[in-house]
Amino acid sequence: MNLPTTVVPRLGHTAFPRPEGHALTHRGAVRSKNEDAILADPTGILWAVADGMGGHEGGAIAADLVVDTLADIADDAPPAEALEDAIELANGRIRAAAGSLGARTMGATVVALFISQGIAHVAWAGDSRAYLLRGGRLRLLTHDHTVVQDMVDRGELGLSEAEGHPEAHVITRAVGAASEIEVDHAAVPLLAGDRLLLCSDGLPRCVYAQDIEAILLQPDPAQTICQALLQRALAEGAPDNVSVIVVDLRVG
Questions:
Q1: What is the pLDDT of residues 93-104, one digit of tens each?
Q2: Structural domain of residue 127, as residue ranges?
Q3: Tell me, what CATH number does 175's domain have?
Q4: pTM
Q5: Is the terminal CB of the chain with fewer CB neighbours within 10 Å at N or C?
């Protein structure tokens, strides 16, 4: 289990809320290895979860390459462009690594958060997710790149049918899976009191959204909330690796 954390000191008044967060990753209750990787920037600006796929350590290598590439982003870089450029660079690095290792399948999903000038810039590919808790309500900021989500979008499958669907784990987009990677973006102005959650699919696969919301609503620090989310996933069987990042926005 990895327990990176960051608490940004107050350095005088600012118009923007300041981020304080915690990140945690675990192999889960079934898997023998953890192929997730997490990024917790000490400045509180940059956060990411990467969920690797591929045998013979390929998934872990891919996830690490995604996180390591994102970690090189400068704090003053243009957020949306920097996130997309880094993910595209990681795509090439993963494919090069796969070629050198002779790996047929090697890649990672990713969700990354860059907080700049009071705005949360989110970039993702795959089914790792970002949520925003505001005013007591949980909002999903990302849109899964999966076969089942595509079926829902086309009206071929209802939301109730999507839960537990046998192809729910089949993703349609991942870093390293193709020569080019399409990255989706969202940008949300932040308010003091907001709480952000990044997670690999190992959390929502076994913990219902209403239960995630209930845990996030607790007035505990980010570290306690991360631990509570993990423990709930483990209690529900956690068939996959589980990674969670909780970022709170404080008065500047």
A1: 999 999 998 877
A2: 5-250
A3: 3.60.40.10
A4: 0.92
A5: N
